[in-house]
Amino acid sequence: MPVELIFGGASFKDPTTYLIDSIEEALTLLSINNVKSIDTAAAYKQSEQLLGEVKAPQNFTIDTKYSGGMMAEPTTPTAITNSLDASL
């Protein structure tokens, strides 16, 4: 069984470093190289928002997660639900 490659979406956390055009170019390269999944999280600053703006979910599976100990608030069911609701 082949190994699935998953791209780390934390790379796209800052819109001043990764402009929309460069994110779209990176997504094209990922697609050409048969990468079908992007991993992200609320803790990756604006990664989820930027991936949404370039419509990445139309062509990729977006895996997001609750970052637990990296979040400022305690891990509670409400905190997890709020984080997921704010996600893509």
UniProtKB/TrEMBL annotation:
What positions does the domain NADP-dependent oxidoreductase occupy?
4-88
What are the GO MF terms of this UniProt record?
oxidoreductase activity
User: Which Gene3D superfamilies does this entry report, sorted A to Z?
Assistant: NADP-dependent oxidoreductase domain
> What ranges does the record give for the region Disordered, renumbered to this chain?
66-88
Positions with biased composition (Polar residues): 75-88
Task: List the Pfam families hit by this protein, alphabetically.
Answer: Aldo_ket_red
Keywords noted in UniProt = Oxidoreductase
Q: Which InterPro entries match?
A: NAD(P)_OxRdtase_dom_sf, NADP_OxRdtase_dom
Q: Which domain of life is it from?
A: Eukaryota
Extract the coiled-coil ranges from the record: none
Give yes or no: UniProt keyword Oxidoreductase. yes
By what name is this protein known?
Answer: NADP-dependent oxidoreductase domain-containing protein
What organism does the UniProt record list as the source?
Aspergillus nanangensis
